[in-house]
Amino acid sequence: MKHPRAERIRTALFRHGVLLVGLFIVAFPIWVAFVGSTLTSRDIRAVPMPLLPGSHGLETYWSVLTEGGGALSRKTPVAAMMWNSLVMAVCVAVGKIVISILSAFAIVYFRFPGRMLFFWLVFVTLMLPAEVRILPTFQVVADLGMLDSYAGLIVPLLASATATFLFRQFFLTVPKELAEAARIDGAGPLRFLWSVLLPLSATNIAALFVVLFIYGWNQYLWPLLVTKELETIVVGVYRLLAVGDDSIDWPVVMATAILAMTPPILVVVAMQRWFVKGLVDVEK
Fold first, then answer.
1. Which terminus of the chain has fewer Cβ atoms in its 10 Å neighbourhood, N or C?
2. Pairwise CA distance, residues 223 & 234, whole Å
3. Closest CA to 239 of 229, 156, 83
4. Whole-angstrom Cα distance, residue 41 to residue 252?
C-alpha cells in the first residue's frame, strides 16, 4: 500500500536534488571566476587552485575598472567598455522593438498592395543567419564611414524579423472591435497604437526588451569587425585572452568576465516579473 505523504516527500527530494545539481553546474564556474578575480596569478596557477576568495579583490576590480589591465591588452578601462556595451545593448533593444511594432502595426491594420509579400520577405530573413550577410553589411558600413562608431555598431542590428513576427501574431489576437470603437471615437491610427495597442503589449515589450538587451550586450563578431578603439566588454575579454598562455593576466580576465556578466543579470532580476508574464502571454 502506497503512502501519499512518503510519496510526496520522495518527489520533493528528487525535484530539489535535480535543482541543486543544475544550480551547481551553472553556479560553480561563476564562483571559480569570482574567486580567481580575488587571487594572484600565482595562486590561480597553483594546483589545486584555492576555492575561497583571496584578499586582492578590491584592488583588482578597481584597477580593471579605471585603468584596464592585462600585460598585452589595449589598456582600455573596463568601465569604458561597459559603457560602450550598455549604449549598444539599450539602443539595439529599443530600436528593434520600435521598428518591429511599427512594422507589425502596418502589416496587421493597414491594407496596401503587396502587404503579405512584404511580411513574407521579412519572415524569410529569419532563415538567414547574420554570418551570411555580414560581409556585404560590413562593406555598406565602411562605405558610409561608420566604422568604429556607435552608428556602425547599432544601425545594422536594428531590424528584427523575429520581433516583427511576434508582434504581428499578438496584434492579430486583439479584437477588431477595439479598432472599430477607437475609429468611432475619432482616434487616428497613431492614437489607437499609443493608447490601446502599446498598453496591451506592455508585458510582451518587457520580455522582448530583456531578450534583446542580452542579445545586444553579448554581441561579439560584429563589434570585433567594425570597431578598433570603441571596444565593447565582450571584445575586451577576447582581447585580454588573445595573447600567449604565459602572458594572460588571469585575475584581470576573471574580474572583467564577472563585470561583463553583471548588467544582464541585473536587467533579468529587475524585470523578472514582467519577463515571465510576457513569455506566458506570448505562449497563449
1. N
2. 9
3. 229
4. 9
Upper half-sphere CA count for residue 207 (Cβ side, 13 Å): 17
Helix-strand-coil percent breakdown of the chain, rounded to 5? 75, 0, 25
C-alpha cell at 171: 496584434
Structure-block grid coordinates of residue 60? 583588482
How far is Cα 171 from Cα 192, in angstroms, rounded to an integer? 12
Full-model pTM: 0.85
Could you give the CA distance from residue 140 to residue 150 in angstroms, rounded to a whole number?
Answer: 15
| Phi then psi dihedrals of residue 68, to 5 deg | 80, -165
Contact 208, 104 (CB under 8 A): no
Cell numbers given for 107: 502589416
How far is Cα 82 from Cα 77, in angstroms, rounded to an integer?
9
Cα distances (angstroms) measured from residue 209 to each of 116, 121, 268: 26, 24, 10
